[in-house]
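Can anyone check this?
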Amino acid sequence: MNVPKRHHFVPEMLQKNFTNDEDGLWTFDSRNAAKGVWSSTYGNLFLEGHLYSLVQPDGTKDVSLESWFSELEGQVAPIVQKIMSTARRGKLPCLSGQERQIWDFFFYQQWRRVPDLFASLLTPEQHRIEVENLLDVLVRSGRPVSNQERSDLLEPASLKRMHKNLRVATLKTGSRTVLDVIAGRGIAIGRLLHPRKSFVLGSRPVVKLTLPGITHLSDPRVEMWLPIASDVIVGMGSIDSPELLVPVSAAQARNQNEASAMQSSQIVGRSKPLIQSLSPLVGRKVQFTPVAEFPQVPSCG
């Protein structure tokens, strides 16, 4: 069986909506800041080798989660196109119940599936401390842990595999409560009308905007936004309106882009000057995640 190795955590079908006239993307990666702003393609961005693979002790890999994400992306792709096309005509998409359910699930997963978010919740160092604490708990409960067992479990390769598998296991489960809250609020669709402005896409693309002390998703003052194109953004709307179309000013777009840049280790977009202007902000609020561990596919000549 052909096992997929290159796992995109921001789908190519989204990245395509941010390309420039040459079908490329300008990007800046704070983990390799010395490289500056450079051009690439959506096939080579926002991916890691076997990111969603469950790694067994013998090295074999279960890629069912990546296949599941691919199926979800296939289901949501026509919905994304529908939202974009109607928004550009100044119309609401009038999603069916099934379309809205698929969108909500995709939105939820896109929020939680990215490495930058997971790194902010549990760093490798924090994970090592947790494993050490669990071993100590076992000893106190009467289950002896030999020096060899402790050494094997705390060996860097074992810790890396366990940390990775924890992420995969977490993504295989979900919160029905969070999904119900998302479903209980309408969707807001923002259209950026200024022809010379654009949204960027971050490696942590869903931006949550809150007021001090107000963080629960059920509060209408809490906003969450996901850009789906350089000129269209979708977020959680009001409780009493299933769909809402709102204009987005240049200042609002800048605020969104800055928030996305600060929480992301890498950003992409259609405009080189825009990426350059945001580059000093990229990665300010993230725990860095590893750079992809495989060569990039060369662009067509």
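Reply from J.R.: I decoded it. The first helix runs from residue 12 to 15.
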